[in-house]
Design a protein that fits this description.
By secondary structure, this protein is α/β, with parallel strands linked by helices. It contains nine helices and twelve strands. The longest helix has 13 residues. The structure holds adenosine-5'-triphosphate and magnesium ion. Adenosine-5'-triphosphate (ATP) binds next to helix 1.
């Protein structure tokens, strides 16, 4: 699904990503973790083709970036990030935002056709959000916004879903309810960025741990999520335990 080889990204004198090699295969669900500024969002911006590597190569769905039409690839990637949410015009109706996922645009420029409306309603219904359809985006809560953005990202039945900190700003109930939907998502590939280890759900198979623009560890989640790796990544003593198939951390003194 994704093959990244020897990727580096330099901005001015700063090495933001350095020597990244990462493969994501069909059927894998990856969590991506690491301190603020470790390069997670930059890496996602490369996979979605909004940033170009200084060195190295990126293949997505078997197509090499630089030799294919990235706009076509993007139609098969569902992408949810808070920066996107901030740019959306808030006076739009929720149903129109979901339908705008069809073209991956910020707003609808044409009257939606009945099939598109039906599809958007079906997706919203599956998130228990059908009653939000006619509300304006700026009127709904943070948790509801996240569900609407995920609904929008699902409109084109993406092969790859990328969620960049989808639970930030949610209360415990809203977070667990959103996680339940993430757990039930039926997509061939998922990348989920988080600062909260316990959001690594039972269905997630792999973890990518970033530090200072490099990969600190990558692989099966049970192998990557060790006290040693986490302590090195976060630079605080960390003790990990598993409960209900999810990892939980206890943090020691700095
Ligand atoms: N447009 C930019 N110009 C200069 N530096 C940038 C730019 N975008 C990101 N950076 C730098 O690149 C590094 C990685 O940023 P990135 O946003 O990828 O981190 P992140 O792991 O997503 O962090 P967070 O957890 O805070 O979201 C940071 O040091 C950041 O300051
Ligand atoms: Mg980020």
């Amino acid at each position: 699904m994704i093959k990244i080889q020897n990727l580096s990204y330099r901005r001015d004198e700063l090495m933001i990503l350095d020597g990244i090699n990462w493969h994501v295969n069909t059927g894998e669900k990856w969590a991506v973790i690491g301190l603020n500024g470790s390069g997670k969002t930059t890496l996602l911006n490369m996979i979605t083709g909004y940033l170009w590597p200084t060195r190295g190569s990126i293949d997505v769905f078997g197509h090499r970036y630089g030799e294919c039409d990235i706009r076509e690839i993007r139609k098969s990637i569902g992408w949810v990030s808070s920066s996107f949410s901030e740019q959306l015009p808030g006076n739009q109706k929720v149903i129109d935002i979901v339908i705008s996922g069809k073209t991956a645009g910020m707003r609808l420029f044409e009257e939606p056709n009945p099939d598109d409306i039906r599809r958007a309603e079906d997706i919203l219904r599956s998130f228990d959000c059908l009653d939000l359809s006619d509300k304006r985006y700026h009127q709904i809560s943070q948790g509801e916004k996240q569900k609407v953005l995920i609904s929008r990202a699902l409109f084109n039945e993406p092969r790859l879903m990328i969620l960049d900190e989808p639970c930030s700003g949610l209360d415990l109930y809203a977070r667990e309810s959103l996680l339940q939907y993430v757990e039930s998502l039926d997509v061939p590939g998922l990348i989920y960025v988080t600062h909260h280890i316990e959001e690594i759900l039972p269905s997630f198979t792999h973890v990518l741990m970033m530090k200072d623009g490099q990969i600190l560890a990558a692989g099966k989640k049970e192998e990557v999520l060790t006290d040693e790796h986490l302590t090195e990544a976060y630079q605080v003593p960390i003790n990990l335990t598993w409960s209900q198939n999810r990892p939980w951390v206890q943090v020691g003194a700095l």
